[in-house]
Design goal:
Elements (H helix, E strand, L loop, with lengths): L14 E3 L9 E3 L9 E5 L19 E7 L4 E7 L3 E2 L6 E4 L3 E8 L5 E3 L18 E8 L3 E4 L3 E28 L10 E30 L1
Antiparallel strand pairs: 1-2, 3-13, 4-12, 5-12, 6-12, 7-11, 8-10, 9-13, 12-13
């Protein structure tokens, strides 16, 4: 796409924005909300016209959408308490721990983001966050009944599901230049048009479905 030589003058006060995009960006946008029929002036670090993902710093926002997920879930045990064993000389017994426990948990693996062009930046901020870290508090106030020789321990469980998604909404350059940021007067800025229906890229992660307290009973 050919870049125009003229720099149309944009009215209104410039607002400096930090955004997530398909290349490293510093974004400057004219006030107002972008739509399919309007444009906004944006500026890349590298002076390119790379497509831009909208976030909290831009008039319109790129969203994460779920496209596929596993039917089944699996359990991650994030805490195990002390073990109680029912004596072998009696037929059955009961045990109550009568305590509360809080566990912070974090999964460093499981998030993968792919985009259709070379990417330097961070799109993790607009993918679901709750699948990777959190905290859970459980109160163990109920009794558990055991047969002789059985063992039990309180546990905290995070239930997760493999999930795949994509990004929806993106800024496309019109190829027309505009006034650069006051903070970067020597940079190149271009008019961008928002496409709210464009689905692009992909992400996969293991989302938290639930977290709960339970007992692990074994012989």
């Amino acid at each position: 796409m050919k870049i125009g030589k003229e720099r149309p003058r944009m009215r209104g006060k410039w607002v400096g924005l930090l955004t997530v995009a398909l290349a490293p960006l510093v974004v400057i946008a004219a006030p107002g909300s972008a739509s399919a029929a309007t444009t906004v002036c944006l500026q890349n670090f590298d002076g390119s016209q790379a497509d831009i993902a909208g976030n909290g710093s831009t008039p319109d926002k790129t969203k994460s959408v779920i496209t596929q997920q596993a039917k089944n879930t699996w359990d991650d045990w994030v805490w195990r308490g002390e073990t109680f064993m029912c004596p072998t000389k009696i037929d059955e017994c009961s045990q109550s721990w009568g305590k509360s426990h809080t566990s912070g948990w974090e999964f460093s693996a499981g998030l993968d983001i792919k985009v259709p062009i070379p990417f330097v930046g961070d799109l993790a901020s607009i993918t679901p966050q709750y699948g990777r870290h959190g905290s859970t508090t459980s109160s163990y106030t109920f009794e558990i009944h055991l047969k002789k020789g059985q063992k039990a321990q309180p546990i905290q469980v995070v239930q997760r599901r493999w999930t795949k998604g994509a990004f929806k909404g993106i800024y496309h350059s019109t190829g027309k230049s505009c006034l650069p940021s006051p903070g970067r007067p020597d940079g190149n800025a271009y008019l961008y048009r928002w496409d709210p229906n464009k689905v692009w890229g992909s992400w996969t992660t293991n989302l938290e479905v639930d977290n709960f307290a339970s007992y692990n009973v074994y012989s």
